[in-house]
């Protein structure tokens, strides 16, 4: 039976895909088709090309300071991401410049959205790295990508969990990883850190909160307007959740894995170790469902 793996979008939560793939491999499950949207396209390409361990080592080494160096200050046509630095990471840990999708030992496709039509666009042939860039180009963070003579951006806007793509590429059974299962209502409700916990920046923020408390009651604090970034992140989460529910209702996978990642923010890429651990745990929880279907 040819197994397909649909790796969903979810920004920093996508590092959990690494843990899912590792846990499946330890049980002798090696997907022959892998399709990814957004961060799923990046991890999927690393898996298809045999460089997943390299990617894991690099992302697990990230901390807050390292993560910040992948972003730029100020908004321009190029978005907020330091493209040169991120491209160097892709070259080191995913694919060499000029490497082609059709040359990968495992069937692979990335999903992007076409700006002119709003339709999803499947990247099944051509250079690997531009395909990844097109699939991950979330508006505002990344610029759109010109690929196959069309402008493309983040595939999570149209097909967050590419189950349909796996089936089209020949998968007879599809394991889908949905990263959007715990998103709604998460923003503004994170648990407070213990006193003294966190880095220097966290402690400065905690100091301001401490001295600001006498001026605001609990009700006033909760009624304050959400931050601009928090609002944008919440809007993205709502869109991802609604589209994911709709797409999976029409084309359900054979097995669905939903890591518990609601506590990881959109850009908290430095939480890779935590996300990977939850990816593995998610597979463990679903073993009673997975194993009978694969006999």
TrEMBL record:
Segments carrying motif DGA/G: 154-156
GO terms of biological process kind: lipid catabolic process
Motif GXSXG: chain residues: 36-40
Active site: 38, 154
UniProt superkingdom: Bacteria
Ranges for domain PNPLA: 5-167
GO molecular function: hydrolase activity
Keywords of this entry: Hydrolase, Lipid degradation, Lipid metabolism
SUPFAM superfamilies for this protein: FabD/lysophospholipase-like
PROSITE patterns: PNPLA
Protein name per its UniProtKB record: Patatin-like phospholipase family protein
């Amino acid at each position: 039976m040819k197994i397909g793996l649909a790796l969903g979008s979810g920004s920093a939560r996508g590092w959990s895909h690494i843990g899912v793939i590792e846990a499946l491999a330890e049980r002798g499950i090696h997907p022959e088709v892998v399709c990814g949207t957004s961060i799923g396209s990046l991890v999927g390409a690393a898996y298809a090309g045999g460089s997943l361990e390299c990617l894991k080592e690099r992302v697990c080494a990230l901390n807050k300071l390292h993560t910040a160096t992948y972003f730029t200050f100020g908004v321009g046509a190029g978005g907020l991401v330091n493209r040169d630095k991120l491209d160097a990471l892709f070259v080191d840990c995913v694919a060499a410049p000029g490497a082609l999708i059709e040359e990968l030992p495992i069937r692979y496709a990335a999903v992007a959205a076409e700006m002119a039509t709003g339709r999803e666009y499947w990247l099944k042939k051509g250079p690997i790295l531009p395909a990844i860039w097109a699939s991950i180009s979330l508006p505002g963070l990344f610029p759109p990508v010109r690929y196959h003579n069309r402008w493309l951006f983040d595939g999570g806007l149209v097909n967050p969990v590419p189950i349909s793509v796996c089936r089209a590429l020949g998968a007879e059974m599809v394991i889908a990883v949905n990263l959007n299962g715990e998103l709604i209502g998460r923003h503004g409700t994170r648990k407070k850190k213990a006193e003294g916990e966190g880095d220097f920046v966290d402690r400065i923020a905690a100091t301001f909160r401490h001295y600001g408390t006498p001026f605001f009651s609990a009700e006033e604090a909760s009624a304050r307007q959400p931050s601009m970034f928090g609002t944008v992140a919440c809007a993205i989460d709502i869109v991802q959740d609604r589209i994911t529910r709709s797409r999976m209702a029409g084309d359900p996978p054979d097995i669905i894995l939903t890591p518990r990642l609601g506590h990881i923010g959109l850009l908290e890429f430095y939480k890779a170790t935590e996300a990977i651990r939850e990816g593995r745990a998610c597979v463990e929880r679903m073993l009673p469902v997975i194993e009978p279907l694969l006999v």
